[in-house]
Amino acid sequence: MKKTNLLIGMSAMLLAMASCTNDEPISSDAARSVGSQISFRPAMGSRTRATETTNANLSEFDVTAIWDNEVYFNQIPFSKGSDSFFTSSPAYNWPGDDNTVTFYAFAPSAEELGADVTLTTSTKEMASFSPASEIADQVDFITAIATGNRKSNEASGVELNFKHQLSQIELRAKSENTAYIFKVAGMRIGRPEFLGTFDFEKETWTLDDWHDTEVYTSNCDTITLTSDPVSIMGKSGNAMLLPQTLRAWSPTDDPDNVARGAYLGVLLSITTKDGAQVYPFPSETTSTNKPLRTYGWAAIPLSGTWESGKKYVYTLDFTGGAGVIDPDDPNPGKSILGGPMKFTINVEDWIETPQPTSMTTFGGGNNTQTK
Q1: Identical fold between 34-164 and 167-325
Q2: Domain spanning 167-325: CATH 2.60.40
Q3: S-S: 306 plus which of 121, 167, 258, 329, CB 3.0-4.6 Å?
Q4: Angle at CA 46, nearest 5°, toward 44 and 51?
Q5: DSSP secondary structure, 152-171, as one string
Q6: Nearest to residue 160, comparing CAs of 39, 24, 37?
Q7: Distance (Å, rounded) from C-alpha 159 to C-alpha 145?
Q8: What letter does residue 189 receive in the DSSP assignment?
Q9: Beta carbons within 8 Å of 72's beta carbon, 6+ residues apart
Q10: How many other CB atoms are there within 10 angstroms of residue 329's CB atom?
Q11: Are the C-beta atoms of residues 165 and 143 closer than 8 Å to each other?
């Protein structure tokens, strides 16, 4: 009997030591038996700059666990091991009572996202998030919610089905116009809203009441447009922006875009096939103090709704026109090419009109001949 009591006491002592080692923020008034290390099996992948997350590039994500109406652990990094399971260091083990544990996972970390992430029993949100101002620095924000317990998931791990929570935007361009040569050197996504709060439980966004907007610009190597659409995003990659309903810019009623409506812009050069510069307008860019510009911004209004987890590919077709001057450029809202050139003709009847012509007659003397 004394030997049995000693073994029970030692087991309780070891369990309490394990609890301290794992730094569990929950109260542990009574020792509870624990299982093996908690591990995860993600069903998709992580982030690279302005590139969508895939199973192949996911290497780490943060997890918060809620158990017995308490935070078991909070925003702990889980990293991919050689066995393709994701575990933490130090390890957190399964509670031994087989009660359900709810997991909230996300990537990248709050520090990389540059936002305040709060995951407690009462609040589960990321506040004041905005995509990086440079497209190249934007990241794919992904989240997952899952439940598990020791009996069902100790050996197999918990499957996390991550969802993309931003909207991915790509601009492409093409032209089948045989009269003009269109060259592109950059793009703009103008005036979408950029500040919002994400609800991890509802998986929804609430945009800031001030409706702040941003202009995202990226350069690309010079591209001469053809009939085949080509990306004009450059080395920055595609944009990762907040889901939202866009309010379009009105070039006619608000050329200076005081209302900060949304638009798409292209850094553009237009010449005729014979080499004459059409845009930027030579008449507006040449002077003794202002040399001729070879590129200017062209734009079109942008409306519609961006949803979480969707990629929007805008193909700008310059075959029949070139939009209007960008709201941040000189003469905003002015049509660049207008419609196709048209001619009306009137051919007058032939009218004979005699003209005296003086000629020299060979053989001597001068003769004047009138026709």
Answers
A1: yes
A2: yes
A3: 167
A4: 110
A5: HHTTT-EEE--EE-SEEEEE
A6: 39
A7: 10
A8: E
A9: 24, 25, 26, 65, 66, 92, 95, 101
A10: 18
A11: yes
- Amino acid at site 15: L
Q: Is the dihedral of CA 311, 296, 321, 300 positive or negative?
A: positive
Give me the pLDDT at residue 293, please. Answer: 85
pLDDT above 50 (res 35): yes
Residue 4 has what pLDDT? 34
Q: Hey, how many other C-beta atoms are within 10 angstroms of the C-beta on 206?
A: 12
pLDDT of 57 over the 90 cut? no
pLDDT at 106: 96
pLDDT at 360: 35
Q: Phi and psi (nearest 5°) for 276?
A: -75, 130
Residue with tokens 């409306």: 303
Residue 100 in this model has a pLDDT that exceeds 70 = yes
Domain boundaries, the chain: 34-164, 167-325
Q: Which residue has the higher pLDDT, 286 or 96?
A: 96
CB 221, CB 304: distance < 8 Å: no
Residue 327 pLDDT more than 80?
yes
Place of tokens 């991550």: 162
User: For position 122, what pLDDT does the model report?
Assistant: 97
Q: What DSSP designation does 292 have?
A: P
In CATH, what class is 34-164? mainly beta
Mean pLDDT over residues 275-300, rounded? 81
- At 348-363, the pLDDT tens digits run 455 555 544 435 333 4
Token pair in block for residue 232 = 């004009």
Amino acid in position 332: P
Distances, alpha carbon 266 to alpha carbons 164, 228, 262, 314, in Å: 27, 17, 14, 12
Q: Which of 326, 276, 318, 240 is nearest to 49 (CA)?
A: 240
